[in-house]
Amino acid sequence: MELTDTTPCSKRGQIIEAAVQEFQDKGFAAASMDTISARAGVSKRTLYKYFESKHNLFQSIVATLSERITDTLDIRYDSSRDIRTQLTDLAWAEGRLLSSPAVMAMSRMIISETLRSPVLAAEVQGKIDKKSAFVAMLRAAHDDGALDVADADTAADEFIALIKAKAFWPVVLGEEMLTNAQMEAVVKSSVDMMIARYTRA
To answer: What is the pTM of this model?
Structure first.
């Protein structure tokens, strides 16, 4: 499971990967910086060079996931393109995230910790939000006349929920990640439902 690129800062990536595993196994409160350094194969001095505290390390994991989301969902509405194709591209951007073992590992860890700690939940809220890309796409499509979406915020929730119902929550609860063919079916079904619901009469 590779969480970051192989760069001169690869030790940072090793530490983040080890921390995700440690937090998943023991929870944030019981996780040990000593164990994280051992899992990562780095000295404690190196660990603290990159992360001054366990809390700082947790926030860095959230930031890493946020960057992945931002990079993947940087999709804009294009009036010259077919709306079904654009919704399919957007759904696949989400699908690719949910097909990444690293992203799913971080997501499971963050969800488990935010359920345990309201303080952490408040800090994380909004930092890993993918909804804005969906809202922007649907609002622009409505303004351009391609769709009839009176409430883009609600429509975005519906679109994301259609994808996550089969590709995210079952995996979080322990099922296998979807194959490419299964994800393709989820994407097509989700887009079909959005088109059926929001195409202008």
So the answer is: 0.77
